[in-house]
């Protein structure tokens, strides 16, 4: 636990503070309780977490971001790709002829028309890029994903790779040959779509599946079948143990053979994290059986987590790692605390309860990463797990026998093809059900902590039936939850303004009480609406948007609108001009005012009625959000001519979203001076337009405005509260007064919790006295 806490503290940037507090408490504890060895172990694990994180953060390649270099790379294997590039997993050996002290993992991207031989060493001239492609909190973090693979930078090849050596690794060749044999076996005997299904199961690679099919599988709560996990390992182990013992091999030797083959299989498919967890736990179980020692599943899962995070501490932030371990933990806790209360003859009820508990325990992980809870997953798992068990066993059997008896396996392959076709159509059919599941927002870290604290306390109380304060504990947690997550939000009248990282574009959102607004939602990036805008809103719990304002109809301001309207309930749409695709858009004109309540008003400063300009930028909607003597100015892409026309209407701004992303055609000296923004926000990405202009940035800085940008700082979040402005960014920069929010927002909640605990303690004492009196009487 302390090792994991150390990793989290290191990642969040307060390890020194955390270590100092823990160290001081342990020193005091050592003098009081004399537990020197126990406390020394805790300190050792904390130090290990910091050293390990620091070691795994070091990268030579990352020191050359945005540089063109000549690198020598071991090309390990080719990734399945649906983009404009082919990608290969590799390990860098040299950079500009200088040998690295140790190989460094990377991904090499090449043009689709350029192939590189797998299992070869090549020399490549290319541009080195970082992995932080999207800097928005809660969204899919590609950087974290690649850190799980020990990758800190990627390479985009600029010319054809020169092959230095082929077949550099025998072990890698064996793995590649197995995958090739597996693909040839199923592609030559099954339909393409059905072959992709069994390949995704056996090779633990969901990229083989069509996107619509995989989305349907996730809605059914069956995605775990397509990531080799404990289920697969148990099936393989049981099948092999049965075969070996049927052949007259002793039980112990059967164990050894089965264990060896399962580890070899893990090597062949590349040791995915879910496989590693299963293999480590299986090895501990195997060792206990061979050595005739007692096996503790809780100790095994804890030791497995420790071993894997020692190898790579950043697996602790990997969705697959967390989901695999939380699912495994749910089965362990269920068997220890819940199943013992269900009669053995009621197997169906036990299975239902087990899957319900699985969903409950994995809910925080699922909500944080996937935002979808498959309610019908219980039914689908109970019905289809036995079917997939047969499919998996049949698939492995056909794979093994095809090399020897391919001629006589035509009928078995045909039957197998029909089974997979039936399963595929079942997935498509189930997608039409209205109640497959529900979309949920991402839980915050504090909510996750509260959830697991309450859950584990419930398990403890269920296991200690004689605990007479059980009702009091439940009352405390229910009251705390009701106050913090039901009553407290109703009383919150702060305004929350966010500027998301949209690359070269603009995407801002406003939340105030029960109202939600969006001002521009576009980017030059392809798929911005599907992969950024909609997930951003879903993860923040936005189900309804009261108004969307589109400043003008350039793609970098509106490309995400269609996807938002298809997935989120949008009540009103405003813009500065008509658009044939969005005929319901209401034209907003200068002088217009939207009164939200006495504290918040939205003023339209531009364009004037019937205004026309050949330059679409100058027709941009200019808005001012007026909130309790503070204001936010959003001028779209207006240029100097319009800036001069609205100077008289501009007041000193609290926050200014810099017009036209900081282009040299906007932000005249008069405009910058008149707006007098406390904070100026630049929203832009990597581009060839010379945005932002250096002189424009200096102009804002010289005016005394604090300049933040989505390119450098990522997502920027503002809180307007009681006449004060607070902000923090994706990269961790925050306003000097931001700490006050912790005292104003967190301390009251902590006080409520302590008050409830005090009440529980008083009631406990009363109950205790009553029990003693009853015994005496």
From TrEMBL:
It holds the Pfam family Lactamase_B. Residues 503-685 form the Metallo-beta-lactamase domain. It comes from the Bacteria. The chain crosses the membrane at residues 12-31, 225-249, 261-286, 298-315, 321-340, 352-372, 378-400, 407-426, 438-460, 472-491, 741-762. GO terms for cellular component: plasma membrane. Residues 202-461 form the ComEC/Rec2-related protein domain. Keywords: Cell membrane, Membrane, Transmembrane, Transmembrane helix. This is DNA internalization-related competence protein ComEC/Rec2. It comes from Sedimentibacter saalensis. The lineage of its organism: Bacteria, Bacillati, Bacillota, Tissierellia, Sedimentibacter.
């Amino acid at each position: 636990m302390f090792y994991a806490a150390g990793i989290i503290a290191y990642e969040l940037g307060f390890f020194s503070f955390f270590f100092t507090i823990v160290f001081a408490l342990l020193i005091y504890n050592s003098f009081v309780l004399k537990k020197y060895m126990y406390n020394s172990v805790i300190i050792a694990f904390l130090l290990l977490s910091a050293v390990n994180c620091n070691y795994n953060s070091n990268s030579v390649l990352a020191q050359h971001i945005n540089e063109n270099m000549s690198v020598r790379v071991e090309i390990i294997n080719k990734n399945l790709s649906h983009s404009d590039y082919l990608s290969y997993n590799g390990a860098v050996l040299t950079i500009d002829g200088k040998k690295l002290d140790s190989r460094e993992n990377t991904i090499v991207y090449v043009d689709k028309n350029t192939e590189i031989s797998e299992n070869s060493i090549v020399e490549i001239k290319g541009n080195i890029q970082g992995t932080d492609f999207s800097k928005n909190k809660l969204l899919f973090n590609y950087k974290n994903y690649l850190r799980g693979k020990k990758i800190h930078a990627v390479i985009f090849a600029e010319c054809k790779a020169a092959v230095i050596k082929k077949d550099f690794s025998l072990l890698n060749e064996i793995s590649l040959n197995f995958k090739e044999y597996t693909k040839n076996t199923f592609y030559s005997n099954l339909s393409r779509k059905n072959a992709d299904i069994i390949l995704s199961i056996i090779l633990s690679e969901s990229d083989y599946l069509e996107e619509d099919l995989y989305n349907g599988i996730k809605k059914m709560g069956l995605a775990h079948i397509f990531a080799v996990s404990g289920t697969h390992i148990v099936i393989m182990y049981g099948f092999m143990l049965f075969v070996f013992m049927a052949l007259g091999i002793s039980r112990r030797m059967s164990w050894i053979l089965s264990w060896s083959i399962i580890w070899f299989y893990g090597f062949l498919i590349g040791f995915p994290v879910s496989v590693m967890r299963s293999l480590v736990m299986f090895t501990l179980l195997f060792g206990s059986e061979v050595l005739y020692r007692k096996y503790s599943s809780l100790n095994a899962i804890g030791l497995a987590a420790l071993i894997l995070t020692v190898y790579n501490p950043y697996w602790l932030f990997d969705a697959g790692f967390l989901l695999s371990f939380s699912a495994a933990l749910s089965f362990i806790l269920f068997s220890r605390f819940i199943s013992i209360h269900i009669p053995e003859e009621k197997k169906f009820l036990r299975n239902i309860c087990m899957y319900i508990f699985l969903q409950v325990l994995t809910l925080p992980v699922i909500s944080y990463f996937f935002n979808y809870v498959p309610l019908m997953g219980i039914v689908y798992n109970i019905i289809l797990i036995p079917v997939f068990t047969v499919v998996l066993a049949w698939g492995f059997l056909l794979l093994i026998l095809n090399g020897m008896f391919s001629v006589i396996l035509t009928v078995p392959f045909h039957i197998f093809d029909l089974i997979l076709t039936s399963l595929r159509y079942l997935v498509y059919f189930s997608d039409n059900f209205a109640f497959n599941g529900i979309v949920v927002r991402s839980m915050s870290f504090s909510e996750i902590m509260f959830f697991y604290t309450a859950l584990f306390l419930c398990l403890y109380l269920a296991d200690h039936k004689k605990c007479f304060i059980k009702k009091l504990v439940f009352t405390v947690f229910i009251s705390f939850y009701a106050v913090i997550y039901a009553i407290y939000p109703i009383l919150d009248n702060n305004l929350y303004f966010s500027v998301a990282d949209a690359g070269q574009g603009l995407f801002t959102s406003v939340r105030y009480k029960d109202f939600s607004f969006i001002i521009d939602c576009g980017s030059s990036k392809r798929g911005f609406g599907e992969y950024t805008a909609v997930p951003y809103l879903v993860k923040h719990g936005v189900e309804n948007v009261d108004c969307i304002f589109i400043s003008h109809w350039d793609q970098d301001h509106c490309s995400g609108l269609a996807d938002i309207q298809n997935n989120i309930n949008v009540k009103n749409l405003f813009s500065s001009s008509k658009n044939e695709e969005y005929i319901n858009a209401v034209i907003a004109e200068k002088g217009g005012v939207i009164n939200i309540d006495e504290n918040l008003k939205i003023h339209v400063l531009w364009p004037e009625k019937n205004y026309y300009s050949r330059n679409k930028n100058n027709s941009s909607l200019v808005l001012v959000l007026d909130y309790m003597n503070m204001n936010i100015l959003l001028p779209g892409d207006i240029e100097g001519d319009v800036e001069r026309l609205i100077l008289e209407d501009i007041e000193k701004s609290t926050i200014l979203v810099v017009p036209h992303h900081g282009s040299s055609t906007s932000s005249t000296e008069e405009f910058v001076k008149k707006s007098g923004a406390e904070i100026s926000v630049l929203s832009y990405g990597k581009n060839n337009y010379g945005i932002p202009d250096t002189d424009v940035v200096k102009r804002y800085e010289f005016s005394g405005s604090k300049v933040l940008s989505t390119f450098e700082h990522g997502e920027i979040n503002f809180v307007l509260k009681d006449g004060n402005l607070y902000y923090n960014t994706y990269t961790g920069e925050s306003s000097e007064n931001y700490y006050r929010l912790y005292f104003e927002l967190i301390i009251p909640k902590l006080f409520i919790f302590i008050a409830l605990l005090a009440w529980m303690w008083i009631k406990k004492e009363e109950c205790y006295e009553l029990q003693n009196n009853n015994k005496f009487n």
